[in-house]
Specification:
The chain is α+β, with helices and mostly antiparallel strands and 592 residues long. It is 50% helix and 14% strand. It has helices at residues 17-45, 58-83, 87-116, 186-196, 213-218, 223-227, 243-278, 285-288, 292-308, 371-379, 384-388, 392-395, 417-437, 445-449, 453-461, 466-475, 494-497, 523-552, 554-559, 561-591, and strands at residues 119-123, 134-139, 141-144, 150-153, 164-165, 169-179, 201-204, 208-209, 233-235, 315-328, 343-345, 351-356, 361-369, 450-451, 503-506, 511-516.
Length: 592
């Protein structure tokens, strides 16, 4: 049976089947992206923190806009070529469309890669309000020296064994206590053993024993004898840590816990029967449990359960000899730790005992953001600028080389690099304010309290000379990144300018929160990756369909050219929708 109207249109509607289907599908797509855009709008309007503005590199987004517009034109040309029965032209135009789709995804990949490699840290400490200064930049790399302390290394060594990103937490571990109720240790155990290598031996601190239930039920030995029985031995002291050993201990514990649960269930059922049948209590259970008769019975049962239960330990401790300097990702820890803490808990509830070592974050800084600190100062009725100048970032001790040890040079500048940058920014802001006043405008919060990567480089080029910055800011000759400057195509380029960006070591106590520019960082990047990621999937899906018509459509064309033309028209409608979504996305995310 042939399905009607798959090629020719109905006379009453002028539509063929697939065109009806695509319009219904596009209606659902409108509701999907409409909801996401509405969500973005409400998140931005009601954000209780300074919303990122113009945070994305404009040039890649602008190029992608024209790329998609161009591809929407070529897909129409491909459809028109089929209508004119020109197969070769169809191939050319459709190939151009696919190349545009590929170029779009390449540029999107460059943009995403820049975000995944760009670090942000919210600082804490110092000043009359809660310091929430944000520094952005590129993480440096480090390794452990012979004493087990962190030392910085050059980035070209980042792929060597033992080299790690300089945001890790160092713990000199002397013991590991694993919780057997959480059988999810495998990844951590493998990493611990990898770092220990041949340098440290990690072995069971005490024998792990579980009373044998058959010997317990026989009733011939007391509890001490049962615990020391040969059948009770699961693992002996000194056995080396391995995933297999932990699995063995977990199995023994879970079996013992299952036995104990069964015992408790039997006693509980017997207690209910006794309350109902012997004592005649018919009230609902919520009332019965409040009565003294129930409490007395349960107290008696508890003593009996102790005798009949195996009571296996849910924890097992391994000693580390000699102590191991463990390098952990901040996300591996349940909560933040500070230097000198004697323990840390991992995500799988493993307790690492020892000492938290100095674990500063080391990065090249390419942006400073004081907007949240300024917002909090204004909420307290304070002038933001003096508050900002009391923050840790602008006041931590700078390194002056030999002057630290051999006296001070008269007239030496003891400001750290970030105080110099801030002073230059204030000079630039003064010039910018004067310029905008002539146009009855005022600087934005971004202008006032955020210093971007191109400004940092420009201030450095002028040797942090405040007067020169003011004069060039007034004349608008300060070197900054323009729209078509390829140097900052996807943001700050640390491969080229890495040595120019100021170097910062942040003590662990001053790290409030840190993340790359992923959904973890803030709501803006969560909605950014959601919408652009979903849009990217639509680009890939549309390209696959159009590619199918290009590479496998010849048979359909030879059978009935109009059939293929209809299919390309449907694909083209979807492609136009993909383009339309991006036309809305670009100004909202990149320009506002």
């Amino acid at each position: 049976m042939e399905i009607p109207f798959i090629v020719n249109a109905r006379k009453d509607t002028g539509l063929f089947n697939s065109k009806v289907g695509i319009w219904l599908f596009l209606a659902s797509e409108v509701t999907l992206f409409g909801g996401l855009f509405s969500g973005y709008l409400f998140l931005r309007l009601y954000a209780d923190y300074p919303w990122p503005e113009r945070a994305l590199p404009v040039l890649p987004g602008l190029i992608n806009t024209f790329v998609l517009i161009g591809s929407s034109v070529t897909v129409v040309f491909a459809w028109a070529a089929l209508k004119m029965r020109e197969w070769r032209k169809f191939q050319i135009y459709m190939a151009i469309t696919l190349v545009c789709a590929g170029l779009f995804m390449v540029l999107k990949g460059i943009e995403y890669n820049a975000k995944f490699g760009h670090q942000a840290v919210r600082l804490q400490g110092g000043g009359p309000v809660q310091d929430s200064t944000i520094v952005e930049g590129h993480l440096h790399y480090a390794e452990l020296n012979e004493e087990g302390l962190m030392v910085e290394v050059k980035e070209d060594r980042k792929k060597e064994d033992g080299v790690f990103k300089a945001n890790r937490v160092l713990i000199k571990a002397s013991e590991f206590t694993f919780v057997l109720t959480r059988p999810t240790h495998e990844a951590y155990v493998k990493e611990i053993l990898r770092q220990a290598g041949d340098r440290s031996k990690i072995s069971l601190a005490e024998p792990y024993r579980v009373i044998d239930k058959d010997e317990l039920n026989a009733g011939k030995m007391n509890r001490d004898q049962l615990s020391n029985s040969e059948k009770a031995s699961i693992a002996e002291k000194g056995e080396v840590l391995s995933t297999e050993l932990l699995d063995k201990l977990e199995d023994a514990f879970l079996e013992a816990r299952s036995h104990d649960r069964k015992i408790r269930t039997e006693f509980l059922a017997a207690s209910w029967d006794w309350v109902r049948n012997v004592k005649g209590e018919e009230e609902a259970s919520t009332y019965v449990v409040e009565k003294e008769i129930w409490k007395d019975r349960r107290a008696e049962d508890a003593e009996k359960i102790k005798i009949l239960s195996l009571r296996a330990s849910s924890e097992v401790t391994f000693k580390v000899d000699p102590p191991l300097t463990l390098v952990l990702k901040p996300g591996d820890l349940v909560k933040k730790v500070n230097v000198g803490d004697l323990s840390a808990k991992l995500r799988d509830d493993t307790l690492v005992s020892g000492e938290v070592l100095p674990s500063p974050m080391i990065l090249g800084v390419d942006a400073l953001d004081f907007r949240t600190t300024a917002q909090r100062a204004e909420a307290e009725g304070l002038d933001p600028v003096p508050v900002i100048e009391e923050t840790w970032l602008l006041n931590h001790k700078a390194h002056h080389g030999s002057h630290d040890d051999h006296g001070e040079t008269e007239g030496a500048d003891h400001r750290n690099d970030f105080k110099k940058i801030w002073d230059c920014h204030m000079a630039w802001l003064k010039a910018e304010t004067e310029r905008l006043e002539k146009k009855d405008r005022v600087p934005t919060l971004n202008d006032k309290y955020r210093v971007n990567w191109d400004q940092i480089l420009a201030y450095q080029e002028l040797d942090y000379d405040v007067e020169k910055v003011y004069e060039q800011g007034k004349a608008r000759t300060l070197e900054r990144s323009g729209l078509f400057d390829l140097k900052g195509f996807a943001g700050a380029n640390h491969k080229i300018d890495g040595d120019k960006f100021p170097h910062l070591k942040i003590p662990r106590a001053n790290v409030g929160f840190e993340s790359t520019f992923t959904p973890k960082w803030n709501t803006y990047y969560a909605i950014y990756f959601t919408i652009t990621g979903l849009h990217g999937l639509h680009v890939i899906g549309g390209a696959l369909v159009l590619g199918y018509y290009l590479f496998f459509g010849r048979k359909m064309y030879d059978s009935n050219p109009e059939w293929l033309a209809n299919r390309v028209e449907i694909g083209g409608l979807f492609w136009h929708f993909v383009d339309l979504v991006w036309i809305f996305l670009f100004p909202i995310l990149y320009l506002m």
